[in-house]
Amino acid sequence: MNLYDILIQSATVALSLQDSEQGFMPPGHNGAYHDPETPVRNTAHWLITFLKAYEISGKQKFLDGAKSAVKYLCSPEIRPMGATFWHRKNPRKDFCNGLMGQAWTIEALAVAAEKLEMPELLTIAEQVFLIHPIDQVSGGWQRVGVDGSYLDVDYTFNHQLWFAASGGLLAKTSQSKEVEQQVQKFLDGLPSMFEVYASGLIRHMMPFKLFSIEKQAQVFRKQFRQIRKPHIFLKEKEYLRKKEVGYHGFNMYAFALLKQTYPEHAFWKSSKFLGTLKFIRSDYYAKEIQTSKYGFPYNPPGFEIPFALKTFYPDSKSQAEQSRWISQQLNASYNFETDLMNKNTDDLMTHAARIYEATRLDNLPLDITILQKELT
Fold first, then answer.
1. C-alpha closest to that of 199 among 275, 288, 308
2. What whole-number distance in Å separates Cα of residue 248 and Cα of residue 263?
């Protein structure tokens, strides 16, 4: 059994879940965050998988499914006020899901525009990308609400990184000079945009010095309350470390997307980046990723690490590593009864949709010894 066998099986089942009239896929609740979501995120993910399944098999049903998903992503209801894509329903948070929600949709539209030869999708993606202002202090993009209102900078580093990676895909396909200039500016300033531990693990938030005065005050108040209660402070510190471990592969996947689009940029030879790359082959990461709820049950490191390895270590030894990671992810998450990646997760529909991250991998052999445990 090879990876593409799994992709085809999963895409086939997913077609039966697609709304027959509007083309959307079942929404989830943003994994461990439990924020009810609209169908936009999962439809974007499955769109990429349907396109890959069509590329592999040539079967019309996958092309039809992709076109139906595109139709939904171009419908007025996903941009109800003509601004950003509506991703999240939690009234205590923004409805755009920061930069991250926008990045996922732009990514899917950029891929579909190229595969389906639909340049009109680039127009939509470019419009949404460019309404996000760049903050001159932090160097990052601001969030923009579904109603078009300007919100604070998105201080979560992986959100900034993924927005840039999706912008790179968009610029590559659309030849937009304005998008290209913004992504290049981000790449040039990237070394100061994030911090790493001595181990190479990427910190979840952008450097504190880049926060606005208001945001710094907010963080200080929260930390002061925690320091007064050491048991809470230590618990929060451990929680954040586990979260950062769970998101490391997600960051590396976005780095790999940028590397494929901008292969000659000087950043790839920087000591900071090389440290993050070395970390994914460390014993510490291999052990800690097993217990992070933001790892195998949510972010799929078994697809993210192989894509980073494929991009930065394109050799035969790397392919063996990739196969092991993929097999581990599927063993942890793939349900052979439903043919969906919805096992051992808080969010069945979102995790199933995230199999799309495997579409950029080669058709590698899987460890059948491990996977057959599910069949016996």
1. 275
2. 21
Residue 376: what pLDDT?
41
* Nearest of 12, 16, 34, 33 to residue 25 by alpha carbon: 16
Q: How far apart, in whole angstroms, are the C-alpha atoms of residue 186 and residue 166?
A: 12
Q: What local confidence, expressed as pLDDT, does residue 128 receive? A: 98
CATH number assigned to the domain comprising residue 125: 1.50.10.10
Smallest Cα–Cα separation from 301: which of 284, 285, 312? Answer: 285
pTM above 0.85, yes or no: yes
Asked whether 289 and 296 are in contact (CB, 8 A), the reply is yes
The contacts of residue 5 (CB under 8 Å, 6+ apart) are: none
Q: What is the mean pLDDT of each run of 10 residues along the chain (376 residues)?
A: 97 98 97 95 98 98 98 97 97 97 98 98 98 93 98 97 98 95 96 97 95 83 67 77 97 98 97 97 97 96 98 89 96 96 96 98 85 49
Residue 228: predicted pLDDT: 62
Token look-up 């201080």 returns: 155
- Helix or strand or coil: residue 199? coil
Q: Is 47 part of a structural domain of the chain? A: yes
165: number of Cβ within 10 Å: 25
Tally of domains in the chain: 1
**Residue 67 placed within a domain:** yes
Assess contact for 46 and 85: CB atoms under 8 A: no
Nearest in space to 272 (alpha carbons), one of 251, 247, 245: 251
Residue type, 286: A
Domain assignment present for residue 375? The answer is no
What SS3 state is found at 129? Answer: helix
CB atoms within 10 A of CB 363: 10
Structural domain includes residue 208: yes
* Calpha distance 221→143 (Å, rounded): 23
Range of the domain at 140: 3-370
**Per-residue confidence (pLDDT) for residue 235, from 0 to 100:** 78
User: Distance between CA atoms of 165 and 307, rounded to whole angstroms?
Assistant: 14
